[in-house]
Amino acid sequence: MVVGRTEKIKLDIQCHVCFMEFLIIDHEDNDGLLGLDCLDVYVDETLLYYLKNGRFQNGLSKKQIKRIEKAATQYYYDKEKDKIFKMGRDNVSRLVPKPSNRSGIILKAHVLGHFQKDVDAIVQSCEVCKRNNFAPAKEHPAKAITINGIFDRIGIDLVFGLPVTEEGFTGIM
């Protein structure tokens, strides 16, 4: 059931403030609408309880049990480390960080994004990267050339920008 009102939530990640607005929905009747199969495992208390204890909480409906069983197939709880892992579509399990650790992870990823110009400059100046950078092939349709006689047209292959040889050469002709 859609309640019809919205709620504003403030996200503060180390001086970066953002406000997000959410529509309030009664989740028991609208699991598909909410996308509860994608709900954060740390927010979904019933799923978290099931993963940690291996059993359902008392008083759950059949619909809730079915949802938890489906969601639990994607997660693994390591009791020794008190960590939850999620199995990806590529069959690789990944750590699901606790909400208290996420702002630091997001900030580190954000800060690393500021170095993109530096990374681009280094890649553009790297000889190995220049030689191995596979650019998409451009379309060069065949064109007929009219030739009037011998040596009317001559083709020469040139390669420059190579490392300097012992003799001081940087190209091939």
What does this structure look like?
The protein has a domain at 2-97. With 173 residues, the protein is α+β, with helices and mostly antiparallel strands. Strand 4 and strand 5 (93-96) form a beta hairpin. It has a three-stranded antiparallel β-sheet with strand order 3-4-5, with no helix packed on it. The protein is elongated. The protein has six helices and seven strands, in the order E-E-H-H-H-E-E-E-H-H-H-E-E. Mean pLDDT is 76; it is low at 25-37. It comes from Brachionus plicatilis (Marine rotifer). This is Integrase zinc-binding domain-containing protein.
Give a quick set of tags describing it.
173 residues, two-stranded antiparallel sheet, 6 helices, Integrase zinc-binding domain-containing protein, alpha+beta
Q: Helical segment tally? A: 6
Distance between the termini: 75 Å
- List low-pLDDT spans: 25-37
| Overall pLDDT metric | 76
SSE run:
EEHHHEEEHHHEE
Main pleated-sheet profile: 3 strands, antiparallel
Using only C-alpha atoms, the radius of gyration works out to 30 Å
Tally the beta strands. Answer: 7
Fraction of residues in helices? 25-40%
Question: What strand line-up does the widest sheet have?
Answer: 3-4-5
Global geometry: elongated
* Helix/strand class: alpha+beta
**Per DSSP, what share of the residues sits in E-state strands of 2 or more residues?**
15-25%
